[in-house]
Structures are given as C-alpha cells and as structure tokens.
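Quick check before the chapter quiz. The format below is the same one you will see on the exam, so make sure you can read both the input and the output lines.
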Amino acid sequence: QLQFVESGGGLVQPGGSLRLSCAASGFTLGTYSIGWFRQAPGMEHEHEGVSCISSSDGSIYYTDSVKGRFTISRDYAKNTVYLQINSLKPEDTAIYYCAADDPLSTLPFVCSGYVIRDYWGQGTQVTVSS
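Here is the expected output.
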C-alpha cells in the first residue's frame, strides 16, 4: 500500500505562505501520478483536487482557484512532494492531503473537482485567519 505523511500546515494570516510536504513510501516518485487534495471545513468526505503531477509526461494541473499562488514540486532524493502555497486566503483553509495513482485501486486517478480515493492519510491542517 502506498503511504503518505503530510506535514507543514499551520495557522497563518491572509497573504501568508506555507510549504507543505508529503513524504511518500511504498513506491518511487515518478512511478505514479501524484497530487495534493484538500478537504474544507464542513465538507466531510469531499476532497477537492488542488494540484497534481502526471507520471506519464510530467504535466502539472492546478485548480483555477490556486493558479499563480500554489506550486507543486518533487524531490526524488527525498521521495517527497511539496506544495508551496503563497498569498493564502481564508478560503484556502482546509486539511491538505496527498495521494497517488495506486495501481491496486480500481478508482481512476482524477485531480479536478471532488475526487474519491480508497484511503487518505492524516493530512495537514492549514488555517488562514487574521
């Protein structure tokens, strides 16, 4: 089973920045598409795709609301995916998770909109408030 440990969240003021980390295990980065998802307060079981990297061609997807503010990257040596989040807004408040295209899953790996995965990690809480 692919495993992820998310970290880097916190409480920040609007306009602030954070760098989220996702340490992956059970596979090597680049083998599968991987991305970040978030669950907003009160949106139980609804995880929105934020940003993903395709394993096939390295293309990157960002949901419209984060374009120009969020940047996804990966460090192969550390087997870690990062999400640099700048110019934070209160509506970015959410638990942020990472997930990958698990070959054992029958679910398609989708990044846009609200997505379903077989499992989620613990996530990391991002709270944007003054």
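If your answer matched, good. The first strand starts at residue 3 and ends at 7.
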